[in-house]
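Course assignment 3, question 2. Fill in each field.
Student: A.L.
Task: Predict the tertiary structure for the chain below.
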Amino acid sequence: MYKFGPIQKKILLTFLGGIALGSSKSSTQYFRTLKAIRNDWKRINQSNFNRSLDSLLKQNLLETKRLKNGSYKLVLTPQGKIQAKKLSLLGSSIKFKKPKRWNKKWLLVIFDIPEKDRAFRDILRRQLKELEFKKLQNSVFISPYPFEKPILELVFLYRAEKYVRAITATSIDNEKSLKKYFFK
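Answer field:
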């Protein structure tokens, strides 16, 4: 993964925010997103911004496109979109509401991620802990909540599909102690 400074992160997330603006379903959501983006930009020094922008262009995460009227616009490259999505997920932990009623199914996440991808392995473990999964073994986590979608999205962004499995189970041998742990 690339190492980004705070301004570079803001630039990438703002471009991703532009995508969010374009896909806003309501005017309230559109203006809330726009206000958050505007407030973030008020504190940025112009020379730091220019250096950060040049760096993102050199890393091929942003590119310039010439428009018909002779002006230019900046757009995220495909690699830039991937990095912006990663930053979006990691910058604000994945948080989902727990369902009010348990569907009586367990979500197991198992993984065997090679040492060369240690950074992703640490990211995945941190996200599982933040989603309140319980660690059963070093590479096995369990939850009574259906959070497979955010986990699989993270796995997809890091192209680690061959190392991670999400399994839905209807029973497990130590279910009594797990229920006690999750539903105190």
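Instructor remarks: The two ends are 39 Å apart (CA to CA). The mean pLDDT is 79.
Grade: pending
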